[in-house]
Amino acid sequence: MANQFDLVVIGTGTAAMVAAMRVRAAGWSVAVIDHRPFGGTCALRGCDPKKMLVGGASAVDHVRRMSGNGVAGDVHIAWPELIAFKRTFTDPVPEKHEHRYKEKGIHSYHGHARFVGQNSLTVGGESLEARHVLIAAGAEPIKLHIPGEEYFATNEDFLAMERLPQRIVLVGGGYIASEFSHIAARAGAQVTILQRGERMLTHFDPDLVGWLMDKFAEIGVDVRLRTTVEAIEKNGAGFVVHTSSEGGGAIFEADLVVHAAGRAPSLDGLDLEVGGIATENGRLKLNEHLQSVSNPAVYAAGDAAQKGPPLTPVSSHDAKMVAANLLEGNRHTPDYRGVPSVAFTIPPIAAVGLSEDEARQQGLKFQTKSQKASDWFTARQAAEKTYGFKVIVEDDTGRILGAHLVGPHADEVINLFALAIRHDLTADNLKTTMFAYPTGASDIGYML
Fold first, then answer.
1. Residues 6 or more apart from 172 whose CB is under 8 A from it?
2. What angle do CA 152, 154, 160 make, to 5 degrees?
3. Less CB within 10 Å around the terminal CB: N or C of the chain?
4. How far apart are CA 443 and CA 376, in angstroms?
5. Residue 311's closest CA among 351, 268, 258, 279?
6. Between β-strands 30-34 and 3-10, what pairing exists: parallel, antiparallel or unpaired?
7. Please, how many CA atoms are within 13 Å of residue 418, restricted to the half-sphere of its CB?
């Protein structure tokens, strides 16, 4: 006989945990399934372990910037020790998650989930029947369909390396390529980025990205734009990456080649067709309630849904909406206004709200204030030349439409602009707020 549940959740990351706990608290019977260690991408293979490595790289970078300004001595990253420090966080996560599920009376299954009907799944030889299913399986690297693709290392591989390779090639130009390049270069690796597009970090303001690119050059990261990877070839203990560009073909030798060219919902192997779950271009077809348009028993959240930005707070928000819709009926829709995004380069770059192009496309009338502020105290105190902003304010209402920051404390200050956008605060509201001084936030009044 099949095991009966009110809700079966595929995945054990942020979205899965939030939804499972909320629905279980309402008295529903719940099961979670994962073929990987419990905890999901953010806690085990993404945001959190990455930020721990960024912490080490930032410490080294700060000391180097302060050299000659009162701080003396050579510092370097001891990679094995930094990875060991990271593992003090990641290693306990799976057991903690499993214990928490057990404590709340949520059943756990290890293995690959597969639909065998609209409300039926199998996992590890066991059959499960569910009134509802939540797909929260996260995302995985997209296929590039090139020869030698099997030689790619993933973000997970990079974050688990016991030894730092001397020559690293990162394929792609988004968050992963940018963040990992800043970590690896400061740890002493020779880093090359191969980006097919016109520029790096396309989700961020081009002017601020331009200012940040000076930092890539300063730390020795070789960024090759408009360069397409055609093949990867094994060469002894290393690899040869074959590329094409407007200037012709080129090859790059590497000890490690990292896939940083994008991620897509992790849906392979679920047998969605058998479950009557419609997809389009590799994505689930969902209505505004995060419910499958073809199978009303199925919902999705987080990276598997890809309705909002691929960020951990969005996964949590999606899960809250799904849980509410399951418990109360389809009355809730996600609200992605004012979701801040940060690339944890050193220094970080951050954005929230609209870009100038997006504001124009919406027919809004606005004023933009932008400046590279290398001479401001926040930059000088940190001996950091890369510091600047662009803030967009609506003409009639004074509402903050968008904010774009790069430099020290950008990853924290952006949250205040996010608060303003989500709650319709005006530029005057921020200007008349007294922030602690001198802090990154105390610069906000001069950005408006």
1. 193, 194, 195, 259, 260, 261, 262
2. 120
3. N
4. 9
5. 351
6. parallel
7. 18
Q: Please, is 256 exposed, middle or buried when counting C-beta atoms within 10 Å of its C-beta (0-12, 13-18, 19+)?
A: buried
One pLDDT digit (tens) per residue for the chain, 448 residues: 789 999 999 999 999 999 999 999 999 999 999 999 999 999 999 999 999 999 999 999 999 999 999 999 999 999 999 999 999 999 999 999 999 999 999 999 999 999 999 999 999 999 999 999 999 999 999 999 999 999 999 999 999 999 999 999 999 999 999 999 999 999 999 999 999 999 999 999 999 999 999 999 999 999 999 999 999 999 999 999 999 998 889 999 999 999 999 999 999 999 999 999 999 999 999 999 999 999 999 999 999 999 998 899 999 999 999 999 999 999 999 999 999 999 999 999 999 999 999 999 999 999 999 999 999 999 999 999 999 999 999 999 999 999 999 999 999 999 999 999 999 999 999 999 999 999 999 999 999 9
Write the single-letter amino acid at 120.
Answer: S
- How close are the terminal C-alpha atoms of the chain, in Å? 65
Residue type, 430: L
Tokens describing residue 172: 């792609």
Tokens of 254: 């590497």
